[in-house]
Amino acid sequence: RRYHVAVIEHFWCAPYANQISKVSENTVLNLHNIESVLHDRCARAERAPVAWAHRAFQNASLQLEREWLPRFSSVLATSETDAELARAIAPAAQVLVYPNAIPLVPLPERTNENAIVFSGNMEYHPNRLAVRYFRQEIWPLLRQRWPGLVWRLVGKNAAAVRPFTQGDSRIEVLGEVVDAVLELARARVALVPLLAGSGTRLKILESWAAATPVVSTSLGAEGLPVRHGEHLLLADGPVAFADAVSRLLACQELRERLGMAGRLLMEKEFTWEKAWTNLHF
User: What is the DSSP string of the chain?
Assistant: First the structure.
């Protein structure tokens, strides 16, 4: 058979281009991350010997990106930020922006539980770094300021962060859930304390779908068309991050305003239907 278009998911599957190019008019590589950038940032956030391993992966990824990206009819990046990074690595590559997106779901009923939430695949290295950072540097500040506040972790592979979550009765590890949006709607604030990563964050889109206000590091919100104080709060550094979370916990009106602004931005820019309009093959 022959096909009009064939899509490869994730950069590490790029060598399949040799097979699909023989039977497809258009070959598309969907980059969820820029792998060399991801490993560079992980190396910066880690210590030896883990940092050394990420440096090795960064160098190997960079060589492979230069080799493989130009071989595809189109390369999809999640944001213009990532697209520019990909073009700098492989100027001959045909890079398009195809944003991360989620299905449009009805606005869930929100509850006012005394909880903050972090969501994601806990085995993903940037998420594991974020949990460690929040547990060691930020959670002690919030725990002291807000008696009774609960920190919840939602997502699969919860065992990967167990060293950072055990021993505290006010940390609830829910693990994988049926509906992340419904679970996020139970919390007052969604946390994105990322120190490393690439692409854009589905955890932010899902929090917006739940109309849950977000506090993120600048890197955590990278690639999204956000403004501090309008769509979310940006905070870098432990004290600034704890202060931003506290600001939301103290003000229901601000929580509701940011939560709905995020929901409206998600509806406008980050649904499946909207994202599909970027594709022209």
Answer: --EEEEEEESGGGGGGHHHHTTTEEEEEEE-SS-HHHHHHHHHHHS-TTHHHHHHHHHHHHHHHHHHHGGGSSEEEESSHHHHHHHHHH-TTS-EEE----B---PPPPP---SEEEEES-TTSHHHHHHHHHIIIIIHHHHHHHSTT-EEEEESS-GGGGHHHHTT-TTEEEEES-S-HHHHHTTSSEEEE--SS--S--HHHHHHHHTT--EEE-TTTTTTS---BTTTBEE--SHHHHHHHHHHHHH-HHHHHHHHHHHHHHHHHHSBHHHHHTT---
Average pLDDT, the chain: 97
**Helices 202-209 and 252-269: angle between axes, nearest 10 degrees:** 110
Q: What is the pLDDT of residues 133-151, one digit of tens each?
A: 999 999 999 999 999 999 9
Q: What pLDDT is stored for residue 279 in this prediction?
A: 87
Instruction: Look at residue 281 and tell me whether its pLDDT is greater than 80.
Output: no
pLDDT at 238 over 80: yes
Tell me the pLDDT tens digit for each residue of 161-196. 999 999 999 999 999 999 999 999 999 999 999 999
Please say whether the dihedral angle defined by the alpha carbons of residues 251, 169, 108 and 220, taken in this order, is positive or negative.
positive
**Residue 6: CB partners within 8 Å, gap ≥ 6?**
20, 23, 24, 26, 27, 28
pLDDT of 278: 86
